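Q&A FORM
Asked by: J.P.
Topic: structure of Phosphoribosylformylglycinamidine synthase subunit PurL

PROVIDED:
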Amino acid sequence: MSHSPLVTDADIAAEGLKPNEYDEIVRRLGRHPNRAELGMFGVMWSEHCCYKNSRPLLKQFPTQGERVLVGPGENAGVVDLGDGLRLAFKIESHNHPSAIEPFQGAATGVGGILRDIFTMGARPIALLNALRFGDLKEAKTQQLIKGVVAGIAHYGNCVGVPTVGGEVYFDPSYRGNPLVNAMALGLMETPEIVKSGASGVGNPVLYVGSTTGRDGMGGASFASAELTDDSMGDRPAVQVGDPFLEKCLIEACLEAFQSGAVVAAQDMGAAGLTCSTAEMAAKGGVGIELDLDKVPVREQGMVPYEFLLSESQERMLFVAAKGREEELLAIFHRWGLQGVVVGHVIAEPVVRVLYRGEVAAEVPARALAEDTPLYTRECLPAPPAYVQQARQWQPEQLALPSQSWSHVLLTLLSTPSLASKAWVYRQYDHEVQNNTLVFPGDADAAVIRLRGTHKGIAATVDCPSRYVYLDPYEGGKAAVAEAARNLSCVGADPLAVTDNLNFGSPETPVGYWQLAEACRGLADACRAFNTPVTGGNVSLYNETIDSTGQPQPIYPTPVVGMVGLIPDLARVVGQGWQTSGDLIYLLGLPLTTPLSDPRVTLGGSEYLAQLHGCVAGCPPQIDLHLEQQVQAACRYGIHQGWLASAHDLSEGGLAVALAECCLSGQRGASIQLPEGIYPRWDAVLFGEGGARILVSVTPAQQVLWEAYLSEHLPDYWTRLGIVNAQGTELCIDTCDNCTLIKVTMEELTAAWRSPLPTYLD
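REPLIED BY: S.T.
REPLY: Here is the structure written out as tokens.
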């Protein structure tokens, strides 16, 4: 192995490294790296792998709790569900690959998150996704969403894991940089949780799964840079997946783990062989010697650089107990998979790579996986100019629309972000495995039964990205509060969080301020809800360099994936009205709340953006204590069997939430606002915030329900109206019988169902 400088400044830049980082590599090695070693440092020191800009901010997240069995640092978090059941779950992004090659980018995002789950020894039981695209009217957006949804459907459907929930939003800020975040859940099948730290000097290292090719070359570095007009040339950085092979890999891995012969396991995701060897060695405080000549290949003539940076899919690396390797290899061969011994654990804490009998690379494991660069940046002392300007907006400046409130409601329902997502989720198999209790679109969260028990798991993904743009701190709190609210609306007790932090460049003062403030909000809210963060993903540099060379970042989008435990599956409700005559209640801030109260506002609302073309104002301030009170009341009502339905108020406020309950249950509702002094009507009908939930209750439970509310939620509940028969109207009247909104079920359905099929079919 040569110790002379073999790389140029262009090579260094091509690996995503900065000059000072290269100097640090030379210092640590005591020599110049060769080409393969430079590539190893390039991927492992990328933001995607080492979180060099975000790690200091992540330390403020609460990560421990009485149910947390595994927190950040492993392939997935694990929580204790009781009765011997343990749930593994995690969310990750595949944004840049999906922007370049939507089908394979999204498909391999699903495959990657599934591997994180079953690498822990858990059988995958559910998938969710959070998607963001640009303007649906644009042909590019239509192409992207078709490809992404098809890719998710292809991989999830073929591998046999149901896609049970998610969210889809459209905004021009995502025009050149869509977001594709995939979340997976799995139930532990092994007595011991499988960890990734290598141990046992002399233990063999096994390569299992698929072969290695040149696909996905340098994907981690690619994911840590802005997208430009030249990014289409980075298609080799997009991986190609095989869900049928992954299905076999799931079964083979779980069988292998059950044998007790596996000491440690790591999937080959970002940075492939480099990441898996370095992380396993560093976490175990040992080294790994890897012989590339033994790696199964699908292409001829590959050199060490290509072997080490390939991100070919469906591959795993095991450390096996010495003497039991043949037993493990036989399992993988029986499933039609590759399985070979490619190396062994060594005492010297290095990753040593052999090729054609010579050392092709030798790097300290910790230098790649643990002791990586860390940038502590100064946060702006005051909000940036765009936020200060947005905060000058006041609702009094807003002219009332010329059209009727009924027309405004129908207009909002027909915007792609609020319209029906049936076009998306009907492509997903959400019933495979036969454990999906609540189907997509029927409730505020997905619900999965835990076989052999009366309990269930609820899961959701949420992020009000416009709020985060206008106020990252409050927006971060809102993401957690909304996720917890959605779980509460199906009767689930929130347990824990996995997050996906999608932001622009942290190297700009505004970008770093957004990231820092959002993390602070997430941390405060997670502490308030007692939902520790068990892991997740950071995806930075989500911005497009336009033709003038200016970066166009996305809205800061910290997606919160939250899981909750349902104590009794017999007591689960959806969002739709169930029975004519049921009483409708609003929990949370009353509708008479004045505009001076910052907890409910038109600032940052869907109404302001869609009807007035304005993104301004202060988004709602999140009252964490009130959120806890309201959510606890909702859960208690569900657990007692009092509530027939529950649905939170989010984008579009009261009127949109009422319409969604009507659409889901195909029943109308008569709403009469109680007496009181109201602010302007658009704030009443379409204002957002206020920790609000709509519930319906059978008349037989009215006395018990209202007595409970009077004791536990005084001043924060309102009886609004009554559920009507199927196919009837939604009517919202003032206290003096003046009709504000009157729309038929046919009008609601037509407005809500048509947008996505209109543009995509």
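FOLLOW-UP: The chain has three domains: 1-62+195-372, 64-189+420-571, 376-416+573-761.
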